[in-house]
């Protein structure tokens, strides 16, 4: 006989707790949750913090600024599901044993999926530090990304740095991180964690992405086909022979402009030219024939403030006529658990799902640390 205490409510609470404990990136980004019901494909708006500028008082008149929060649309286009069969014997387990056998491995898979989707948001980050193809391996690697974030006026509090396995291993070799007298803590020695250094809470995540640049190939080097005015977000690149594709997430720079830019959409060359959409808007006017340099393939380690990215979740409606279901939310996460019976396989099914969307909320608060 099934354990009557093993209800969807208990499974949901246990699942949410395990998910929270297994996420890395998912636990570091801004999360937006509301108890309203939504469907896959719905677009909602997420509020961004208000921004202000300081004016010098001239002795007679003050400048009144409207404290308006801007809003960013986010599409709830991800319906993540993990369903598995259980037997009557499985359902007779206590929640601790059931969690060990089913919930823990299921939620680890969920956490990996969520972290992977957040890591993929690197494509919207145009700011970079380090060298493509060279694994970060020195304190200078961290001070370099710190400078970029300082220059972009990213708040000092709440900065995170999430590394791939290669960068994590290299930095752990440094005395700064693994000697107690240098680091001030034995955390790295005991748990191989980098901890907080140089203003960053530093983590390792196996889901950090490797960006493979597009196949754009030029006879010499791509160049600007015609003058690109300040604040433009599209440009045409050309060469005497230009073939292949420039890829979303590619990073490029233009001679005479120190800003780096990220490509917003894949584009293929035709007639020895390619039209590129990019962000941020051009900081300077680009002259005709200015040489364009595209950054090589790289590991996209991410330094960011919490408000750089968001994960949005909303409630999915409980199945009609099915009382064996539960919805639970905590700390910006919400899971639905439904237990049912599959007539065809004659087995009980536990289904855990999550409706969510992901977006780069304020890319200015992030930087790619190239590896």
Q: Please, could you describe this protein's structure?
A:
The protein has eight helices and 25 strands. Strands 5, 6, 7, 8, 9, 20 and 25 form a seven-stranded mixed β-sheet that branches. Strands 1, 4, 21, 22, 23 and 24 form a six-stranded mixed β-sheet that branches. Strand 15 (251-254) and strand 16 form a beta hairpin. Residues 186-192 have low confidence and may be disordered. By secondary structure, it is of the alpha+beta class. Helix 1 (8-22) packs across helix 3 (95-119). The chain folds into three domains: 8-49 and 72-121 and 309-358, Major capsid protein gp5 fold, CATH 3.30.2400; 122-210 and 300-307; 213-296, Elongation Factor Tu (Ef-tu), domain 3 (Beta Barrel), CATH 2.40.30.290. 21% of the residues lie in helices and 34% in strands.
State the main characteristics.
single chain; 371 residues; alpha+beta; Elongation Factor Tu (Ef-tu), domain 3; 3 domains; seven-stranded mixed β-sheet; 8 helices
Layout: helices, strands, pairs:
Blueprint: H1 8-22, E1 30-37, E2 43-47, E3 71-75, E4 78-86, H2 88-91, H3 95-119, E5 128-129, H4 139-151, E6 159-163, H5 165-172, H6 175-178, H7 180-183, H8 187-191, E7 195-197, E8 200-204, E9 210-211, E10 217-218, E11 223-224, E12 234-238, E13 242-243, E14 245-246, E15 251-254, E16 260-263, E17 267-268, E18 273-279, E19 292-294, E20 298-305, E21 309-315, E22 325-330, E23 333-342, E24 347-360, E25 366-370
Parallel strand pairs: 1-21, 5-25, 6-8
Antiparallel strand pairs: 2-3, 4-24, 6-20, 7-8, 9-20, 10-13, 11-12, 12-18, 14-17, 15-16, 15-19, 16-18, 20-25, 21-24, 22-23, 23-24
Helix pairs in contact: 1-3
């Amino acid at each position: 006989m099934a354990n009557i205490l093993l209800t969807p409510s208990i499974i949901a609470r246990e699942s949410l707790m395990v998910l929270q404990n297994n996420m890395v990136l998912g636990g570091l980004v801004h999360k937006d949750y509301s108890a309203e019901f939504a469907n896959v494909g719905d677009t909602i708006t997420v509020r961004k913090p208000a921004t202000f500028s300081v004016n010098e008082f001239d002795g007679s008149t003050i400048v009144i600024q409207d404290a308006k929060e801007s809003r960013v649309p986010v599409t709830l286009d991800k319906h993540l599901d993990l369903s598995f069969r259980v037997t009557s014997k499985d359902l007779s387990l206590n929640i601790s044993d059931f969690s060990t056998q089913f919930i823990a491995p299921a939620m680890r898979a969920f956490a990996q999926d969520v972290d992977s989707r957040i890591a993929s948001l690197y494509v919207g980050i145009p700011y970079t530090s380090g060298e493509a193809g060279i694994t970060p391996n020195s304190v200078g690697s961290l001070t370099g990304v710190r400078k970029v974030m300082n220059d972009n006026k990213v708040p000092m509090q709440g900065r995170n740095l999430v590394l791939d396995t290669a960068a994590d291993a290299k930095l752990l070799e440094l005395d700064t991180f693994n000697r107690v007298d240098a680091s001030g803590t034995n955390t790295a020695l005991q748990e191989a964690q980098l901890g907080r250094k140089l203003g960053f809470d530093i983590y390792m995540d196996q889901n950090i992405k490797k960006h493979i640049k597009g196949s754009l190939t030029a006879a010499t080097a791509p160049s600007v086909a015609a003058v690109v005015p300040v604040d433009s977000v599209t440009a045409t690149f050309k060469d005497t022979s230009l073939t292949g594709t420039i890829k979303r997430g590619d990073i490029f720079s233009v001679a005479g402009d120190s800003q780096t830019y990220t490509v917003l959409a894949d584009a293929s060359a035709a007639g020895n030219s390619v039209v590129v959409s990019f962000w941020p808007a051009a900081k300077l006017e680009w002259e005709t024939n200015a040489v364009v340099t595209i950054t090589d393939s790289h590991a996209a380690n991410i330094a960011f403030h919490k408000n750089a990215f968001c994960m949005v979740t909303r409630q999915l409606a409980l199945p009609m006529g099915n009382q064996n279901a539960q919805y639970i939310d905590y700390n910006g996460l919400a899971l639905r658990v439904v237990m049912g019976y599959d007539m065809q396989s004659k087995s009980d099914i536990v289904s855990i799902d999550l409706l969510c969307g992901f977006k780069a909320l304020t890319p200015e608060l992030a930087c790619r640390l190239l590896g």
